[in-house]
Write a structure and sequence with these properties.
alpha/beta, seven-stranded mixed sheet, Rossmann fold, 18% strand, elongated, single chain, 14 strands, 36% helix, Spore Coat Polysaccharide Biosynthesis Protein SpsA, Chain A
Length: 498
Amino acid sequence: MGRPKLKIGVLIVAYNAESTISEVLKRIPSQPSFKISEVLIQDDYSTDHTYDIASNHLGNDYDFDLTVVRNEKNLGYGGNQKAGYLYAIEHDWDVVVLLHGDGQYAPEVMPDLVQPILDGNADAVFGSRMIEQGQARAGGMPLYKFVGNRILTTIQNSLAGVELSEWHSGYRAYRVNSLSELPFLSNSDVFDFDTEIILQLVGAKKRIAEVPIPTYYGDEICRVNGIRYAFDVVIDSLRYRFGQTGFGRGKLGHKSEPYAFKPSRYSSHGRVLRLLEEKKDLQILDVGCGPGWMAKELSEAGHTVVGIDAESAENVKTRMDRFIQADLQNGIPQEVGKDFDVVVAADIIEHLPDPETLIFEMGQRCRPGGSVIISVPNIGHWYPRLRIATGQFGYDQRGILDRTHLRFFSRRTFRRMAKDAGLVPTKGAHTGLPLDALGLGDSRLAAATIGLLDRILVKVWPTLFAYQFVYEFSPELQGEVEQGLANSSSETNVANLS
């Protein structure tokens, strides 16, 4: 059996394209090996005769179905794409090709654009004028646009962590199922829509391919304000990068998901490991172990590690000595056992509605002389304070204001909660900004400089500049707390009996 045929549709976005729209239609390829099912001309409330001219082609004998739609008002370049993509989703297209009605992009190379999707190797394919050296300028791209394109692409690649040859081509193909998974309706209605959807693809870890396309600059009217466009796409890329770090709503980034292991020695995970680095042969309980990456580090250091989490990640059992799946909101199950040298809860209690109970139980699972290590984000950090002061408080995709966080702690409230659970602080550490999440390695001068300044500020004023608190506790007061609870219970019973 051969490969199933996919329904390929072409979305032609058009605005005041009366002089070019007919020629664009004529140039759409028709090949036995490349079958287009439907072409949608989406006229964005043109002030010329684009719609009338396009409609005159409805009776022509094309190898594809032709649909012409006129928006009831001008939606903008991005808004027009949104309308077209919704049409593609609603009409069960498998692939949608974005083509401009002004003739700037060559319909003849459409089979090359779509092929990586047909082969199952890509979710999106971008036509690039920059792959073949010298081709863009030879095709008439003005020097200032060429230079601007290269500068912006370099900046955006750095911020997004990708290596695309061009971010600014409007000739593209998308797998519709992948497109439907993106929140593209929240994107801009103007020209930076194309940048925002790339960032969403990157954030969703979709596969992106590029193919070379010819460059053609005719006498079409450019409607893009270059300075405003450059500003918008850079801001979009910065928002994406900061959203990944935990600053801002992060609508262009990934959804909240289990955090990866943070290897930096200045991160919460790094601080936990440093607290244990001089100790040997410990029995460790990793509460909220996630995929088990920190447990793996501890196991490789010679410790015996038992992990517990609500979800069983792939291969998690191979990264520790024993894994137990259990909902921590119901406490630590009895099968976990007791007499651990160390009980760790790294970046977990803020996700629970009742962390007090869990913290108390963690102390109970320690042997005499054992310790509890807990890390939490600092709600007193300057970033959430600034958000509140400016009336912008809300949840982010990640970071201190992660939308999955149910409880928030300042240093004082964190220590008070631990004290109420019978835990006495013995060591404390504070982490700074998560520069590793920004993609800035310690070897880079900018990261080293920012990191040094941040660590100084954290040391001087931890309640304002510490991103997270990491404390080691001794459960010395657990007996007193248990006795207090018992006394309280006895008094209540006596009162009830009377």
